[in-house]
Amino acid sequence: MLIYVLRHGITRWNKLKKVQGAVDIPLAPEGIELAKRTGEALKDVSFDVCFTSPLTRARETAHYVLGDREIPVIPDKRIQEIDFGVLEGTQFKDAGGNIISPEMDIFFNKPLAFERPENGENIADILKRTRDFWIEKTTDPVLQDKTILVSSHGCAVRALLQNVYQDEAHFWHGCVPPNCSINLVEVKDGKACLLEEDKVYA
């Protein structure tokens, strides 16, 4: 099984440094272009199925990466971005790129200490639901020889890949995955191996 774990393209809120989370923001024109270029780079990959976050930015990214391939595209809420609750829509960085939100400073620098916002989730929540997804798909006999595209989000990608890293103390694994980056995972005989990490094709 080969799993291409994809982060969505750039959105307007990414550029504005706003907390996005579960808010359904579409791709910006630059995000569409980035997704198209990523799709061109992956045009020879024979995907069998795509699982995507239900949010528009992830679904659009999958659409542009897949191009004219006629394969099942299945939304799954378990790989949706972390829900930031009342923090969503707030600006967390200034024009110089400095984090100005105390909550988001913890989220990026001490993620396991990030407290669940009102009406939102914490890291343990997203680890649990992405793990449920991971175990279900990687143990499905029907998928064992398939090539799979998973279109998701920055925090959800890192949570999903904890099933490979198994290093929650270093949740971000060095950084937030770049927009339209790919983490390629091979699952064989129940063991997961990371073949490519945070690769930006475009």
UniProtKB/TrEMBL annotation:
The keyword Isomerase applies. Keywords: Glycolysis, Isomerase. CDD domains: HP_PGM_like (cd07067). Its EC number is 5.4.2.11. Signal peptide: none annotated. This is phosphoglycerate mutase (2,3-diphosphoglycerate-dependent). Belongs to the phosphoglycerate mutase family. BPG-dependent PGAM subfamily. InterPro entries: His_Pase_superF_clade-1, His_PPase_superfam, Phosphogly_mut1.
